[in-house]
Amino acid sequence: MRYQSRKFLYSPSDLITFMESPFASWMEKANILDPSFQELMDPEDEMLKLLQKKGYEHEADYLEVLKETGREIHNISSSSPEEMKAKTRKAMKAGRDVIAQAYLALEPFAGFADLLVREKGESRLGAYHYEVWDTKLSGKMKPYYAIQLCCYAEMLQEVQEVMPKSMSIILGNQERKALKLNEYYSYYQALKSAFLEYHQGFDLEAQPDPASSWEFGRWSSHAGSILNQRDHLSLVANISRNQIKRLQQAGIQTVQQLAETEKVSISKIEDAVFER
Q1: Which of 12, 84, 211, 235 could form a disulfide with 103 if both were Cys (CB 3.0 to 4.6 A apart)?
Q2: Would you give the DSSP letter of residue 249?
Q3: Regions in the chain scoring below 50 on pLDDT
Q4: Helix (H, G, I), strand (E, B) or coil at 106
């Protein structure tokens, strides 16, 4: 997420932040609009830095694998976003085999796709089109991977006037997992609409309740402080949203009230679970 030319540009990763945590999504924008929020951010995570480094190495290793299969690799050199966007389009029009770190944009979204891979099939570009491939360190698929790729695919369509039918994840073991775009695209569109509506109505004075999210991104300490002050039921280990709702309906609003309650059962919570 960044602010330039008096407007916000969002990345596919911003969609995932929102999907997992509306609270963290709000904090990210608040931090851009008001630098004082920087003080509330978690300290820099050394493990995260290491994983990022490993991620770059994984991508570089996979590029070598593609080279060994005879694929030509074209890297988009770092410059201003507008220059990188122009370089990406030029490489696509030239029909490069594989375009690494391609910069795609379709406002209000923009971002760097790990790989654009040329495939057969008519498009505005000619007798070929591009698919988006993304490298991930994980050894297994995660649902949000597909959402990110859908966002890149939509941006890609704006250039080649064809929506790719497939998209691929390159797992940490270099296994390629091909996904059908149409199996995820409707959910992506619904999530994108909710995200844009959420941020169009953004109010710097209306911080959302962290209890509505289970993840807090790089704002975990701040969220934890709020929840601790409220002694919120979400602090109970392994509790679910439905269980919190049932307890609150029964008049139990805090961890202390739960610990001290004389109730022996709660509607729609198993007695053994409530006792635990």
Answers
A1: 84
A2: H
A3: none
A4: strand
Residue 64 makes CB contacts below 8 A (sequence gap 6+) with none
The identity of residue 152, as a single letter, is Y
Residues 13, 16, 20, CA angle at the centre, nearest 5°? 145
Q: Tell me how far CA of residue 250 lies from CA of 60, 244, 258, 272, 276, in angstroms.
A: 55, 10, 10, 17, 17
d(CA 100, CA 76): 6
DSSP three-state, residue 173? coil
- Helices 143-160 and 81-93: crossing angle, nearest 10°? 70
Please, are residues 220 and 21 in contact by the beta-carbon 8 Å criterion?
A: no
Question: 92-142, pLDDT tens digit by residue?
Answer: 999 999 999 999 999 999 999 999 999 999 999 999 999 999 999 999 999
202 touches 8 (CB < 8 A): no
DSSP 237: T
